[in-house]
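MODEL INPUT / OUTPUT PAIR
PAIR INDEX: 1
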Amino acid sequence: MASQTETRAAVLGEAGAPLTVETLVLEPPREGEVLVRLGASGVCHSDLHVRDGDWKRPLPAVLGHEGAGVVEGVGAGVTSVRAGDHVVLSWWYPCRRCRFCATGRTWACSGTRAGESLLPDGTTRLSRASGEAVRAYLAIGTFSERAVVPESAAISIAPEVPFEVASLIGCAVTTGVGAVLNTASVPEGASVIVLGCGGVGLSVLMGATLAGATPIVAVDSSKDKLELAGDLGATHAVASAQEARGLLPEGADFVFEAIGLPATIEEVPGLLAPGGTGVLVGLTPQGVAVSFDAYTFVDRGLRLLGSNYGSSDPTVDFPRIADLYLEGLLPLDRLVSHRIGLEEIEAAFDAMRRAERARSVVVF
């Protein structure tokens, strides 16, 4: 393998500034690392939080954390994937050694350096021609033609899954479907309200459909998103929480907030039936507080759960979700509303700020 190669990538130099498409130097994979040629990368709201400065992250960095591609090479000691494998990238690569990993909670791994956007050895394989180091966001940086990632971040799936669909399994789909099946364990026949019908909210809806929930009420201000929600299994599609409350006057068994807005999070308790469960899936900017009527919360016996990455184990859940897609049980291709190039990411961010589109996907 060559000593180094080049890759075109979308780089965030400073928070609040537009991403710039640059040609970066990419070093080859070292021990325990994998070189992946990206086929597609979703544009996620978490990337927008970093781009706009809502979340403080080390910069400069190649953004993107929702990607899929083909393994081009592996470093010493890699055994779980080999050249030619199709993989989905996990943005929270597990150390496989801490007590959380040992108990199946890889989403809570305390031994990873993903939060620092660094590989396990504390370095990055990306740099500018000047020699300045550039981090890969969450250690995978999928807004790039190629990436060197930890072995535990590269999860092999069936090659029949298109890259643009597979990329969404890396974040939005696993986050949404997992919130239903893993975090909340929604039983058949339970009533569900989904607040927000972006990529994650629509994935929650598909998870609820898969679980056999009924009725399923989708809430969003966008007529286009509500129409898509109806196609994906919602029994009712309404524009406000008040309308949802009118449909289920006793409340829902489960309410999923998939936007990350304080106002909609605070709606959750009032939409729940006695003994119901609220699940917070959407992420707010850092430092944002919300408030509830504590007396009513206790009096009605409500539960509130936070769901990170769908409480998933990517090694198990990525292939399972891919297989469900191939079996026709999860119509994930419906989530891809726009196919774009690297130069169009800022336009995708603008659309996200306007609450437009289901999911924009960079196709390489």
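PAIR INDEX: 2
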Amino acid sequence: MWHVPAVTDQLDPLHPFTTAQALAAGIPASRLRGKEFRRLSKGKVGLCATKTPSAVLDAEAALLGHPAGAFASHTTAADLYGMPVPNDPVERVSVFGPEQRRPRHGVHCHVAVTGVRVRVVEGVRVADPAHVFIQLAGSLSLVDLVVVGDHIAGKRWYSAAGMVEVCATSREPHAGRALVAARYVRDRVDSPMETRVRMLLVLAGLPEPTVNVEIRSELGDVLVRFDLAYEIVQVAVEYDGRQHAESPEQYDRDIARREDIDNWDWRIVVITAKGVYTDPETTLRRVQAVLVARGLAGVPKRFDPRWRAHFPGRRRTGS
């Protein structure tokens, strides 16, 4: 059985490496084709088979062969940070001059403008989260970008106000689109679906609910926290993920919690994934009806049509 080779000047076998580096380190081509090493899915670099795949290793592999100043960017950086983004079929890196590009299968190299901030995360140079947000503005929809922005603010890498400031002063491509999205970003959002529910309401022209509203006892203890709420009329809007129904204990806790809410004269509108992706218009009408019944000012009779482009739902038969 072959053993993992020692670290040399040409090769550290526990990190991505090129075929040329392996051959220079004395590993025969026949061995590279065996089960001991695997090839990363988006590029043509080998990796020791005992190493678990990760976003960090994917970023390291994408940066192979690029100058020392290159850094992971766009969706590759987003994956490394754990941002909720759609899958990208290629890895993406950036350099600070077109002459520094190194063409390679499965890797797209962008040219960054001066001023883009770079961090080192687990030994990998990677674009700063706010600059990743701006880069993603070139490919993501408004709602998907706000989901990323809420994630960044939720991790406290930047506040919502800080995101606006970075986007407003950036000279990067797509900074204008990023600024539009940044103005919708809110602090303390717990999940992507909460962001989507909020954006559905706002884009339809309904008043914006407050994020993560806490109801406290006379002693100051937190009794309940709502995802979204209209405090002045005591209306809460809650996303109910499928995992709640799959957990009997969580389901029982939710029932008890909602009974308590009824006793406090709060109305709660529960929204599921179906109400966001399949029938968003019904969701809007449900929230609208409760807000009107509670006497909230500023509730429109007709929805702003902007929401339809982002939440098309499923077309009804005969419509």
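PAIR 2 NOTE: The first strand starts at residue 37 and ends at 39.
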